[in-house]
């Protein structure tokens, strides 16, 4: 069964703001209907940032603040009043999948609090994405903004068109690939000391650094051509290399066109 929640400005608020929070924001609590298995949260916004933080509770909490209605305003003509259009977010929940969509007219930022074991699919067109303490499958895309993932476990697929990707992982799922790609920005990823991977790394304008014991396998980068025949293209060049860390493991891809790549060992 699908459950639909909505936030539109201050006109509709399903849960009251706690005293410690900004009283100009909005808040939705999505109860745990089946806490026996992990949930997945997808969130897409146009202008605002996305912040996700883990906690020990079972509910998912969605908060929105700083919408477009609270931004710069013109003076109200004498004898008239301004009528604000409703702007906010819509939240749908079905079968442990929670979908959050912000209004294209809004510019508010999302703060999402989730149980630790939660998978994420996050997309922000024009701002940053921050995630802390989550264990799951994490897919993030920030076209024009920084991606910062801290104390993450599981696997990560991160893409930024214009922005740095900064990641710290406590544990890595050995059965799933990792990918960190940005066109313009630094990639800086820290892994546990026992991290095992088959690594492919490339940068056109930048350098690649690591403090892992790395066994170089050559300067080849394998890329899917995204065609129905499933063929792959392998390119060789001085700007990229491949090899293994700690004997090899899941595929880990690091790619930046304009930026330096750091593959670090957690101290």
- N to C succession of SSEs: EEEEEEEEEEEEEEEEEEEEEEE
Helical stretch tally: 0
Total discrete domains: 1
- Poorly predicted runs of 5 or more residues: 7-25, 68-72, 231-236
Task: Tell me how many strands there are.
Answer: 23
Strand content: over 45%
Portion of residues within helices: under 10%
C-alpha end-to-end distance: 46 Å
Largest sheet: 21 strands, mixed
The outline comes out as flat
Mean pLDDT: 81
Report the structural category. Answer: mainly beta
Please compute the radius of gyration using only Cα atoms. Answer: 21 Å
Structure report:
The protein is an all-beta fold. The chain has one domain. It is 0% helix and 57% strand. The chain contains no helices and 23 strands. A hairpin with a 2-residue loop joins strand 6 and strand 7. The radius of gyration is 21 Å and the shape is flat. About 11% of the residues have low confidence.
């Amino acid at each position: 069964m699908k459950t639909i929640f909505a936030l539109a400005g201050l006109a509709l608020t399903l849960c009251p703001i706690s005293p410690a929070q900004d009283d100009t924001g909005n808040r939705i609590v999505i109860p745990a209907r089946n806490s026996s298995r992990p949930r997945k949260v997808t969130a897409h916004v146009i202008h605002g940032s996305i912040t996700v933080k883990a906690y020990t509770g079972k509910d998912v909490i969605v908060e929105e603040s700083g919408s477009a209605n609270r931004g710069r305003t013109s003076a109200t003509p004498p004898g008239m009043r301004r009528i604000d259009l409703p702007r906010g977010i819509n939240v749908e929940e079905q079968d442990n999948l929670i979908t959050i969509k912000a209004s294209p007219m809004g510019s508010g930022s999302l703060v999402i609090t989730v149980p630790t074991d939660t998978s994420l699919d996050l997309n922000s067109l024009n701002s940053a994405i921050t995630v802390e303490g989550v264990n799951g499958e994490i897919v993030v895309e920030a076209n024009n903004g920084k991606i910062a993932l801290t104390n993450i476990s599981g696997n990560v697929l991160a893409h930024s068109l214009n922005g740095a990707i900064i990641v710290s992982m406590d544990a890595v799922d050995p059965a799933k690939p990792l990918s960190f790609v940005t066109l313009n920005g630094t990639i800086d990823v820290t892994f546990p000391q026992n991290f095992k991977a088959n690594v492919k790394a490339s940068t056109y304008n930048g350098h690649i650094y690591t403090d892992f014991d790395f066994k170089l396998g050559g300067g080849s980068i394998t890329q899917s051509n995204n065609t129905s025949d499933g063929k792959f293209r392998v390119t060789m060049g001085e700007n990229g290399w491949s090899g293994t860390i700690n004997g090899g493991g899941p595929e880990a891809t690091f790619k930046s066109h304009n930026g330096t790549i750091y593959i670090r060992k957690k101290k």
